[in-house]
Amino acid sequence: MIKKVSPESIKELRIKTGAGMMDCKKALEISEGKIELAIENLRKKGLASADKKSIRLAAEGLIQSYIHPGSKIGVLVELNCETDFVARQSSFHDLAKNIAMQLAACQSVQYVSIDHIPEDILIKEKEIEMAKEDIINKPDNIKTQIVNGRIQKRLKELSLIDQPFIKNSEISVDELIKEHISLLDENIKIRRFQRFLLGEGLEKRSNDLANEVSKMISHK
Fold first, then answer.
1. Where's the Translation elongation factor EFTs/EF1B dimerisation domain (predicted)?
2. Taking Cα atoms as reference points, which of 170, 138, 203, 184 lies closest to residue 24?
3. 42 near 28, Cβ under 8 Å?
4. Where do the domains of the chain lie, and which CATH numbers do they carry?
């Protein structure tokens, strides 16, 4: 027999997750009114339904900042959703903060996903792998397999959503987002990010200036 749930419980779950009212009601009925179990059920549902929502326009959201302790690494990330209502939810804000922290921790990440990596980067990575000494004498079909495997590994290192989530390495950032798509019942997208490292580029600019000064002196 399905346990009847109170409007107060539905409201509490909706506030915690931002999920739709009927989804909250069903999750509470299945979990016999237990809030934490209902949240887990909503997350599991998301892994099955997130792909269906991924084509929907996400034009609301927020820009989240994160400054790592010591103030030497800073991150800005734009996280999009479908409505202003979801953009105000604490769970959406927590997701944005976690993604910003992920970016601060994973400095090799340069793109949101593999799909965002430019073609010239792919070509360059393939050239690097094809020239490695350990595969030069291997048959072409074996060489191709090895190179493709190495390239995919390298591309995942550059891709944010392919990273293991820093707070739970059993799931990827992509799976983390899908869980929240379920909880909030909206499409969620990481649109862009920018990482700031203290002093980054100063050495290059200093060298450029030194070269310009040298040129000026040599022409006198």
1. 59-200
2. 184
3. no
4. 7-54 (1.10.8.10), 60-117+159-197 (3.30.479.20)
